[in-house]
Amino acid sequence: MPTIYVGIMTGVSTVYITKAWQRQTSPVLVTWVIFAFATVLALWTALSFGEALSVNVPNLLDIPVTWGVAAVLVYRRRDIKFFPAEKLDKWLTALCLVATVVVFVEWLISHDHKHANNCIQVIMSVAYIPTWRGLYKADKNPEAYGVWCVIFIVSALAMLMGFLRGQDVAMKYGIRATVCVGGVLLLMVRLDYYLPTFALTNGTIPDWLRKKDIGA
Fold first, then answer.
1. Does 210 have pLDDT greater than 70?
2. 111-123: per-residue pLDDT in tens?
3. What is the sign, positive or negative, of the torsion defined by CA atoms of 131, 135, 139, 140?
4. Mean pLDDT, range 50-60, rounded to an integer
5. Is the pTM of the predicted complex or chain greater than 0.70?
6. Is 83 left (phi over 0), alpha (psi -120 to 50) or beta?
7. The predicted structure's pLDDT at residue 215
8. Residue 28's beta-bridge partner residues?
9. Could you count the other beta carbons within 10 Å of the beta carbon of residue 158?
10. pLDDT by residue (tens digit) across 67-124?
11. Who wins on pLDDT, 134 or 197?
């Protein structure tokens, strides 16, 4: 199973990092900086808690993905967004960034591995909110189904593997990732399929469809 994870996530990370490099996506730098540090801290605390690396492979593979995307965005710093445009999203990402640092310092002092890991899972969940809000308000879907579907499947498998092996921390990481990525997929489906169908069946046209028609 770990070998399969490595192969799949290597392919997915290559695709997503390439899209970021080619400016085909518009991720927010701070969000990926949070993910980059949080994934390292999540794995570090999980291993310190005594969990096996073999069941935390998804967490391990998330590290090069998040750091790779963050590095590309830093390189592209002239034409990327450091913080989200929306005021609420800006405050949420700033809060998550500060919270990550606070949890890290508190963990170094207390060595409470499980508490630190739980806090990181909460922070990573909250850090998804700007992405969800952005997709909810978007005029069109900026994300690729292939990448997010694969991440969802890998996250679900990680959750299952953690459950079967009795590794609570790995299971919680998988649950958090499955729910967060599942939310992204649902919002993508809403954009591409539900809203157009709703417009046809109810005789109403959403603003984003109307703008698209005018632009044509």
1. no
2. 999 999 999 999 9
3. positive
4. 82
5. yes
6. beta
7. 41
8. 81
9. 27
10. 888 888 777 766 666 777 778 888 988 899 999 999 999 999 999 999 999 999 999 9
11. 134
Cross-strand partners of 81: 28
**Dihedral of alpha carbons 84, 89, 94, 98, sign:** negative
Query: Does residue 64 carry a pLDDT above 50?
Result: yes
Task: Give the start-to-end residue ranges of the domains of the chain.
Answer: 2-215
Q: For 123-166, give the secondary structure using H, E and C.
A: HHHHCCHHHHHHHHHCCCCCCCHHHHHHHHHHHHHHHHHHHHCC
Return d(Cα 122, Cα 128) in angstroms, integer: 10
The region, left, alpha or beta by phi > 0 then psi within -120 to 50, assigned to residue 167 is beta
Angle at 190 between CA 216 and CA 126, to 5 degrees: 120
Going by the DSSP 8-state scheme, the letter that residue 23 receives in this structure is: T
What is the spatial distance between Cα 24 and Cα 187, in angstroms, rounded to a whole number? 19
CB atoms < 10 A from the CB of 174, how many? 25
3-state SS track over 61-84: HHHHHHHHHHHHHHHCHHHCECCC
The phi and psi torsions of 118 (rounded to 5 degrees) equal: -60, -40
